[in-house]
Design goal:
The protein has 154 residues and is of the alpha+beta class. It contains 1 helix and 7 strands. The chain has one helix at 8-27, and strands at 42-46, 50-56, 65-70, 73-80, 109-116, 127-131, 134-140. The strands form 2 sheets. A 4-stranded antiparallel beta sheet has the order 1-2-7-6, with no helix packed on it. Strands 3-4-5 form a 3-stranded antiparallel beta sheet, with no helix packed on it. β1 (42-46) and β2 form a beta hairpin.
Amino acid sequence: MAITTASERAFRTTVNKMGSMLDQMHKGYFGFSPSDTWSPAVNLYETDTAYLICVDLAGVEKDKIDVRIEGGRLSIKGARATPMHPDGTMRAEGGSRRVRVHLMEIDHGSFCRWVDVPGDVRRGEINAIYRDGLLWIELPREPAGETRRGDAGL
């Protein structure tokens, strides 16, 4: 059985996430800090012709999402508003009733997520679709044998 190891960058991302979780635990039940940047959940897939990235951005307006390639990484940034009840009773200003927060687990405010981009991605052909709260990003791959190794332009 072959063993695949994670890259050093992937390990560093995991360490950073663990640090963020520990920080959140230290805040405690009432220690929510809306100025924190949160990181959306991501699924990564691979086919013979493309890499697929699925980002959970439920409640984020499409025009609040920014996707770019910076260096060798894909940057996904934006902001999600604080969830409000559809009848308008929880408006930040001028709401018709007072609301006390007992638990707030849905992240809101600015978000940022970085995903490493492999060297065989056709950068000019990247496509993104946002539907039902999920952002799908397709990164087409170079045909086998045409990989641009060491491409510093990613």
